[in-house]
Amino acid sequence: MIYTVGRLKVSRIQFNNYDFMRLFLAYLRVNGITFINKDNLRYNLYELYQNKEYKDLFQDFAVKQQIEGNFLDIDYAIQNAVLYGLISAHDCNLNNSKRVILIDENESITIINSYSENYKEKMERLVGEFLDKSINKRDKYYYDGKIKQLKKRKILRNYNA
Asked: Residue 6: left if φ>0, alpha if ψ -120 to 50, beta else—which one?
């Protein structure tokens, strides 16, 4: 939405980067994921950012370009997630950027139910694709070796119950 205030045009983003990270982490947590790697996440989300179906979800993100490959600038979203207690503030190991998702399954369901059906459906598909790609890459930063169990658990819940 664009509002006009005097001569100044002000834009208001309906689904900002905090909303994205909050809903994304809630869906990950409901699917048994307890860790994220913030460095890998920026590249993995960029792959999904290119899909026009998810344009509404990525309204508030910028793309950074570099020689090794483009990535999504999620630093501000990560900072907000830390500030509001969704993920841990410090890396789990000194050598990587692994963060713990601090919300539990019940909180995750409450977060998911607080969003409109449109955003829930899109995020559910996005997280499903994200999990499938991560399983295919055997990304241990998300799964810790429990890949077979998670493939069966993939988003088959009724959150409105």
From this structure: left
For residue 161, being part of any structural domain is answered with no
β-strand pairing of 98-100 with 35-37 = antiparallel
Distance CA 155, CA 159 (A): 10
> Whole domain around residue 122: which residue ranges?
15-153
Instruction: Kindly report, residue by residue over 96-155, the tens digit of the pLDDT.
Output: 677 888 998 889 999 999 999 999 999 988 988 888 877 666 655 554 444 434 444 444
3 phi and psi, to 5 degrees?
-105, 145
* Distance separating alpha carbons of residues 118 and 121, to the nearest angstrom: 5
pTM: 0.79
CA distances from 149 to 32, 135, 141, 146 (A): 9, 11, 16, 6
User: In angstroms, what is the C-alpha Rg of the chain?
Assistant: 16
Provide the β-strand partners of residue 72. Answer: 63
Predicted confidence (pLDDT) per residue in 31-58, tens digit: 888 888 888 888 889 989 999 999 888 8
Domain-embedded: residue 50 = yes
